[in-house]
Specification:
Elements: H1 19-31, H2 44-56, E1 92-111, E2 116-129, E3 132-138, H3 151-173, H4 190-210, H5 215-218, E4 228-232, E5 246-250, H6 258-263, E6 269-273, H7 281-291, E7 296-301, H8 309-318, E8 323-325, H9 332-341, E9 346-349, H10 351-354, H11 357-369, E10 373-376, H12 383-396, E11 414-416, E12 423-425, H13 427-430, E13 434-443
Parallel strand pairs: 4-5, 5-6, 6-7, 7-8, 8-9, 9-10
Antiparallel strand pairs: 1-2, 1-13, 2-3, 11-12
Length: about 450
C-alpha cells in the first residue's frame, strides 16, 4: 500500500492484501478511533475489498460509521467483531432521560396560612442506560412561596441548566456520573436545588438497580421513625387518630377553635406550623395557653420569615416550648446561624429544598453534631419519593418525620420490588404521565 490512510482513493487497489498490509489497515482503523474486537489480518480482507469497490463506484468512503455497513461484506467476521466502538469522532446513543408530570388530588384539602393545598403536581425523571431504569421525583409548589421554587421554575431549571450540564458530563467523560456527584451541579437557587434532587434520585435508583441492591443496603434502618400527620386548624374539621399520633397542625395568627382544641386531646403531641405568617409573641403565647392542659406542644415551627433567626431566638428565649425552623433551613450556613443565635431546638430538613438526598444526609449529621434535633420533611410527594424519605429518615432520625404514606386520591398503581427505592410505576400509571422532555445522551466507548 502507498503512504496515507488506507481509505485514500489513490491508495486503493482491488487485490488481496498481504499480512503486513492487513495489519496496517487495522492500525489505521484503530488510530482513527475505530476498534473491532475480533478484526484480524484474515477477517479484514472482505471488508477492505468491499471498501475498494465502493470507492471505485463513487460511493461515499469516509471512515465507517455504522456496524451494519460491514454486515454484507464481512461475513467472515463473527457478529461480535461487527460492533463498532468510538472514542472521539463517533458516539453511541444509549442513555435516555425523560421528564414527566402528573397531578394528584389530595384526599383532604389542606389550608395553610398562605396557601390552600388541594392538589400537587409531581415531576418525575426516568433515567435509562445499559438495560436499567432509575426513577426520581420531586413535588414543587404551584407558585413561589417562602423561598421555595415554583413548578415552572423547577421545570425551566431542568430543561435549560441541569440536564444540559449532565449531558455535557456524560459526553465528555463517556460514562454515567455517580449519583453522589449530582449535588455538586447545583447553584444557589431554590429551583436548582429541587431539580438536582430529582436527577440525583433517579441516578441513585439507577445505580442501586444496576448493582442489584436495595436502598436499605445504602441506608440500613436504625430508628423506628414515627410518622407526622399533617392537618389544619384552619379547616372546618380536624381529623385525628389515637393518642400515638404526632400532629403537625397548620395555624395562623387566630386563636384555635374549641373544636380543634378538643380534637387535639387525642394527639400524643402537636407541632404548631405557622408557615412564616409572622404572629406576635402574644398570639403564640395564647396558642400555648389554649393547649397547656390538652396535649404536649412538641414545637412552635417557623412563625417568622425564612432567614429571620433573630426573632426566632428572641421567641425561644421567652417561651417554654421548643422552637423549630423549617423554611429557613437550606444549607449548612443556615444551621450555623441557627446555632450561633440559639434560634431553634429542632430543624426540618427537606431533601428537595437542600439539593438532594446526599446533602440531606450530611446536613442531618451536621445538625445533630451541633446539638439540634433534625427531622425529615416532605412536599406532598407520591409513594415514590415518600418511600425515599422514609428510608433516609429510618436510617438517621428519631424525630417524627414525613414518612407516612401520602394521602392522595389518585396516586395510581406502583409496582413493588426489592431493588433501588423499591417502586416503579405500572404500565397503566405510566400511561397517565404527561411527557415534558425527552433527551438522548451520547456515551463514548466503554
Amino acid at each position: 500500500m502507498r503512504r496515507g490512510t488506507p481509505w485514500s482513493a489513490h491508495a486503493l487497489t482491488e487485490r488481496a492484501l498481504s499480512g503486513e498490509e492487513c495489519n496496517e489497515v487495522i492500525s489505521e482503523l484503530k488510530r482513527h478511533s475505530f476498534h473491532f474486537p475480533t478484526l484480524t489480518a484474515t477477517t479484514v480482507q472482505p471488508w477492505y475489498l468491499n471498501y475498494v469497490q465502493r470507492a471505485q463506484s463513487g460511493t461515499r468512503t469516509h471512515t465507517p460509521s455504522r456496524a451494519k455497513d460491514f454486515e454484507s461484506s464481512a461475513s467472515a467476521i463473527p457478529p461480535s467483531g461487527l460492533r463498532l466502538y468510538a472514542t472521539s469522532n463517533r458516539k453511541v446513543v444509549d442513555v435516555h432521560l425523560d421528564v414527566y408530570l402528573r397531578t394528584n388530588s389530595l384526599a383532604s384539602p389542606l389550608q395553610a396560612s398562605h396557601q390552600r393545598h388541594e392538589s400537587r403536581t409531581h415531576l418525575y425523571v426516568r433515567f435509562f442506560h445499559d438495560g436499567t431504569t432509575g426513577w426520581g421525583e420531586v413535588s414543587p409548589q404551584p407558585s413561589t412561596l417562602n423561598g421555595d421554587a415554583s413548578f415552572d421554575e423547577v421545570r425551566s431549571e431542568l430543561q435549560h441548566q441541569l440536564i444540559p450540564l449532565v449531558h455535557s458530563v456524560i459526553r465528555n467523560e463517556g460514562n454515567v456520573p455517580h449519583w453522589s456527584r449530582i449535588a455538586r451541579f447545583t447553584n444557589a437557587s431554590a429551583a436548582s436545588r429541587m431539580a438536582t434532587t430529582l436527577v440525583e434520585m433517579a441516578l441513585l435508583d439507577w445505580w442501586l438497580r444496576r448493582g442489584e441492591e436495595s436502598i436499605v443496603t445504602l441506608w440500613p434502618p436504625v430508628f423506628d421513625t414515627p410518622a407526622l400527620q399533617t392537618t389544619s386548624a384552619l379547616e372546618g374539621s380536624t381529623l385525628l387518630g389515637d393518642s400515638s399520633i404526632h400532629v403537625r397542625l397548620k395555624v395562623d395568627t387566630r386563636p384555635l377553635s374549641d373544636h380543634v382544641v378538643k380534637s387535639l386531646a387525642l394527639a400524643g403531641d402537636v407541632l404548631l406550623d405557622y408557615n412564616c405568617c409572622s404572629p406576635s409573641r402574644d398570639e403564640i403565647a395564647h396558642h400555648l395557653a389554649q393547649l397547656a392542659f390538652v396535649t404536649r406542644v412538641r414545637a412552635i415551627e417557623q412563625p417568622f420569615e425564612a432567614g429571620n433567626v433573630v426573632d426566632h431566638a428572641l421567641l425561644r428565649a421567652s417561651i417554654d416550648a421548643p422552637v423549630s425552623i423549617d423554611e429557613g433551613v437550606r444549607n449548612r450556613r443556615d444551621i450555623d446561624q441557627i446555632v450561633q443565635y440559639g434560634a431553634a431546638d429542632i430543624i426540618c430538613i427537606k431533601a428537595a429544598r437542600v439539593g438532594g438526598y446526599s446533602v440531606a444526609r450530611t446536613m442531618v449529621d451536621y445538625a445533630t453534631g451541633k446539638g439540634l434535633r433534625p427531622y425529615l420533611g416532605g412536599f406532598f410527594e407520591s409513594p415514590l419519593a415518600r418511600g425515599a424519605n422514609r428510608a433516609l429518615a429510618q436510617h438517621l432520625v428519631r424525630e417524627p418525620s414525613d414518612v407516612a404514606p401520602p394521602t392522595l386520591l389518585n396516586a395510581g398503581q406502583w409496582v413493588s420490588d426489592d431493588l433501588g427505592f423499591g417502586l416503579t410505576p405500572s404500565d397503566e400509571l405510566l400511561s397517565t404521565f404527561e411527557p415534558l422532555l425527552h433527551v438522548d445522551f451520547a456515551v463514548g466507548s466503554h
